[in-house]
UniProtKB/TrEMBL annotation:
Protein species of origin: Roseateles albus
MF-aspect GO terms: translation initiation factor activity
Family: Belongs to the SUI1 family.
Pfam families, A to Z: SUI1
Protein's recorded name: Translation initiation factor Sui1
InterPro entries membership: DENR/SUI1_TIF, SUI1, SUI1_arc_bac, SUI1_dom_sf
Keyword annotations from UniProtKB, A to Z: Initiation factor, Protein biosynthesis, Translation regulation
Sequence ranges assigned to domain SUI1 in this UniProt record: 54-120
PANTHER family: DENSITY-REGULATED PROTEIN, DENSITY-REGULATED PROTEIN HOMOLOG
Length: 130
């Protein structure tokens, strides 16, 4: 028998959906549905890992141009951006921070490893990949 209860015009799957991305604000928090920058959940979002900061070099998908990748840094988004800026300045090159990974243009692995060891002696910094 059919029910006459309205589903608020959302349909059967409407109750399951949640806004994940908005063209106006970008990524949104699944809990409070605010922009990630304005999230009011109060939970700091730290990358999960094994506690090892890995520095590697990669050329895949970059037309043969090498970049130095820094993964596993136990900092929040703002700390990653600040550390990325410091590393880029020290290496004299450009770069970015994407999805918790710091990218520095060029092959600066040894310099980045030394800088990270001096900056944070408690971090275990390793050179990853060949």
């Amino acid at each position: 028998m059919k029910s006459n209860k309205p589903l608020n015009g959302l349909g059967a799957l409407g109750a399951l959906s949640g806004l994940v991305y908005s063209t106006e604000t970008g990524r949104t928090c699944p809990d409070c549905r605010q922009a990630k920058a304005d999230c009011r959940c109060g939970r700091p979002v730290l990358p999960k890992g094994d506690g090892v900061v890995r520095v590697s070099r990669e050329t895949k998908g970059r037309a043969g141009k090498g970049v130095t990748l820094v993964k596993g840094v136990p900092l929040d988004a703002e700390g990653l951006v600040a550390l990325g800026k410091e590393l880029k300045t020290a290496c004299g090159s450009g770069g970015t921070v994407k999805d918790g990974v710091i990218e520095v243009q060029g092959d600066h692995c040894e310099r980045v490893v030394e800088l990270l060891k001096k900056k944070e002696p408690k971090w275990q910094v390793k050179r990853a990949g060949g």
